[in-house]
Amino acid sequence: MLIHSLLICFSLLLFHLISCLRYKELILENLILKTQLAAYKRKYKVFPTTPWERCKLVMLSYLGPNWKSSLILVTPDTLISWRKKKWKLFWNLLSSSKKLGRPMIQWDLIKLTRRIAKQNPIWGATKIHGTMIKLGFIISEKSVSKYMKTLQRSPNTRKRLAWKNFYALHADSMIVSDLFTVFSYNFREIYKVIFFMDLETRQILHFDITAKTSTRWVRKVIKVALRKKDPKNISYVLTDNDTLFGKRFSRYLERLGIKHKKTAVRSPWQNGYAERFVKTCKEEFLDYFIPLNEYHLRVRLEEFMQFYNHNRTHLALQKDTPVSSPILHKPRDGNYKLHSQPVLGGLYHTYSWKKAA
To answer: Is the pLDDT confidence value at 317 over 80?
Structure first.
């Protein structure tokens, strides 16, 4: 049954093709006339043909032998001149696609050149070329310089060092700080929260809350934060341009042998790690919490900081916690069950293995 239906379909298709071939000249003549009619029906009766209309007429003239008799708005000489122009354009495109000069090197080698140039922004073409020779690649220094030009690099080598590289160079000797605002339940009181973060471990060294800010209060907070990390190992304190971090605060840090660095105006991305903690604190805690007073906010925020430092994992730390904690494997001896301890009223939980009763 299936073979019979396929034969019927094939025979119908063959009959349709034969009938089309029989009336091929008539179909082509109709197409040429319709193309000219569409051009004639345009708003402006002057006939400056568009490239698309010329292309259609030229292509249709190749398909039928009696195309000259079907032309009304265009003379056969004009159409023949269009044919010649199309062939000239075609061969010009083919010849212009061939690039002069030495052939391009392998694409993998180009990607490697750009990768090394991107990873070492201070280096020029000479040092990158020397590195590639040491890796066993055969390439000229001119080729390295050619494919480095595609990268947007500053001509001044001192400006090529990204802010992220600066962070990585000084992470073990830098503390970052920022402030954020929390409103009370009736919006009558505004609390300012300040914190100091160790950039290397992402640990919140200390924080404090007050309704009345002053430089003396900031100095008091950083004094407690420095006790948790040896001041001799701290070289920089990075803050924004808040008035609390003014000249008096800078002079206080200078007496301790610490340099005070400020971000550029309207450039919060330069203090990105502190800004990210503010976002984390708001999204993971303050959006679900309404403080009744300053004491209520202090107690709950201290609980969140404890959870943040000892239990919350970080991608930048290879999914470790700021205060590194060991992996708790289930003991093999005895019957142990996973015990959960609620944090912040059950908003989060901490887990440990405890022996079943």
So the answer is: yes
pTM reported for the whole predicted model = 0.64
Residues 125, 131 contacting (CB under 8 angstroms): no
**CA geometry: angle at 48 spanning 46 and 50, to 5°?**
135
How far separated are the first and last CA of the chain, in Å rounded?
Answer: 75
Is 90 exceeded by the pLDDT of residue 218? yes
> Which of 159, 160, 124 has the alpha carbon at shortest distance from 145?
124
What is the rounded distance in angstroms from the CA atom of residue 55 to the CA atom of residue 200? 67
What are the tokens at 224?
């407690």
As to burial, measured by CB atoms within 10 angstroms (0-12 exposed, 13-18 middle, 19+ buried), residue 225 is buried
Tokens 């292309």 -> residue: 55
Q: What pLDDT score was predicted for residue 6?
A: 46
Q: Are 167 and 156 in contact (CB under 8 A)?
A: no
List Cβ neighbours of 118 (8 Å cut-off, separation of 6 or more).
151
Q: Are 331 and 343 in contact (CB under 8 A)?
A: no
Residue 289 has pLDDT above 80, yes or no: yes
3-state percent breakdown (helix, strand, coil) of the chain, nearest 5 = 50, 15, 35
Mean pLDDT, the chain, whole residue set: 82
Give the pLDDT mean for 270-295: 94
DSSP result, 216-239: HHHHHHHHHHHHTS-GGG--EEEE
In angstroms, the CA 149 to CA 86 distance is 37
Residue 206 backbone dihedrals phi, psi, to 5 degrees: -165, 155
197, 176 contact by CB (below 8 A): yes
Strand partners, 175: 198, 237
Q: Are 210 and 191 in contact (CB under 8 A)?
A: yes
| Amino acid 13: pLDDT | 54
